[in-house]
Write a structure and sequence with these properties.
Blueprint: E1 13-17, E2 25-28, E3 31-34, E4 38-46, E5 55-63, E6 70-72, E7 78-79, E8 85-86, E9 89-91, E10 98-101, E11 107-110, E12 113-116, E13 120-127, E14 140-147, E15 153-155, E16 161-162, E17 168-169, E18 172-174, E19 181-184, E20 190-193, E21 196-199, E22 203-210, E23 223-230, E24 234-246, E25 249-260, E26 271-276, E27 285-288, E28 294-303, E29 309-314, E30 323-328
Parallel strand pairs: 7-14, 16-23
Antiparallel strand pairs: 1-4, 2-3, 4-5, 6-9, 8-12, 10-13, 11-12, 13-14, 15-18, 17-21, 19-22, 20-21, 22-23, 24-25, 25-28, 26-27, 26-29, 29-30
Organism: Nocardioides marmorisolisilvae
Protein name: Big-1 domain-containing protein
Length: about 325
């Protein structure tokens, strides 16, 4: 309460706000309230009395803007694709605080939360610019980390195939939606052509699916799948020709053709043994098929009857199953 004393008239001293200060201060029941910025002038008046003139005095003081400060709690970290993070910032003035992202490529402000848009460091600044009564607050910034997201690979088990058979479709995807790389771990058995496994030899084919990550995703754990490239079955045909050395003594030439039953193409490098049924080793011979799938060998001299049955046996090889064919020695 402002204090004022008067003279000996004993009339009360009345304190009031000067009209020029109406927007700056007010007085209620002797209590002065500050309402704005400027100069507050208080008038003290005492009415005249017998033997006393009226009294008047004034006092003025400046009312300046008040300072304010911002309290901005440290927000928690998040991850790319993760939840928004709540932001809590207040001004001591009670005025609203404005939140702004200093790193819009990493995060944005949605209401009173920070929304991650990519991995990196997100910086948010809280500001309060003041008003007629309060000065602007010193801005306060807080940073949080937006971590790279994890990703996983889904790689369906591919079916088996056969040497010379159809390519096998490969189906692999990453939870991130990023492209998956398919690599053959057994290039001697199979290769990757686009999104298929192409058999090049019989054996076990192993394919690995990988995704190396990017700015927003860490690398996925590679996933491998194995399939079997079976040996191809074969078709075997054979015939014989002979030359006479003497009566019933012949030299027999066996010609055998081996082809893939899958492709119909010649099967090269297949050992073929041919001999008379029930005959001794001298009645037969062994040869390896050439690039045309043909094995030719000659046995003899042997003593045989005409139209003697013989069997050609194609051995199982690295890429082909075995097979047999029968024939008769020719007429003389």
């Amino acid at each position: 309460m402002p204090a004022a004393t008067g003279g000996g008239s004993a009339n009360p001293v009345v304190i009031s706000v000067d009209p020029t200060s109406a927007g700056v201060c007010s007085i209620t029941v002797g209590i002065v309230s500050l309402n704005g910025v400027g100069t507050c002038t208080l008038n003290a008046d005492q009415a005249a009395a017998q033997g006393f003139n009226a009294g008047h005095a004034s006092q003025s003081f400046a009312v300046s803007k008040a300072d304010q400060s911002i309290t901005f709690a440290q927000p928690g970290d998040t991850g790319f694709g993760g939840s928004d993070v709540a932001l809590t910032a207040t001004a001591s003035s009670g005025l609203d605080v404005t939140l702004t992202s200093e790193t819009p490529g990493v995060c944005s402000v949605v209401g009173t939360s920070v929304h991650p848009v990519s991995a990196g460091t997100c910086t948010i600044t809280a500001t309060q610019l003041g008003n007629d009564v309060f000065n602007a607050a010193t801005p306060v910034s807080r940073s949080l980390s937006v971590a790279k997201a994890a990703q996983t690979i889904t790689f369906a088990q591919p079916g088996n195939t056969v040497y010379g058979g159809a390519d096998v479709a490969l189906t692999a995807s990453a939870s991130s939606g990023l492209a998956v790389t398919l690599t053959s771990e057994t290039p001697g058995v199979c290769t990757v052509v686009g999104t298929s496994a192409h058999p090049v030899a019989a054996g076990t084919c192993t394919i690995t699916a990988s995704q190396g990550g990017n700015g927003n995703y860490v690398a996925a754990t590679p996933v491998s799948r194995s399939l079997t490239v079976a040996k191809a079955p074969v078709t075997v045909t054979t015939k014989a020709t002979s030359s006479v050395l003497s009566l019933l003594t012949l030299r027999v030439t066996y010609t055998t053709t081996v082809k893939s039953a899958v492709t119909g193409l010649p099967a090269a490098g297949v050992p073929v043994t041919t001999k008379l049924n029930g005959g001794s080793a001298v009645t037969g011979c062994t040869a390896v098929t050439n690039a045309s799938g043909v094995a030719t060998c000659t046995a003899g001299p042997i003593v045989i009857a005409i139209l003697s049955p013989f069997t050609a046996t194609a051995a199982e090889s690295s890429n082909y199953l075995g097979g047999t064919a029968t024939g008769l020695t020719p007429l003389l």
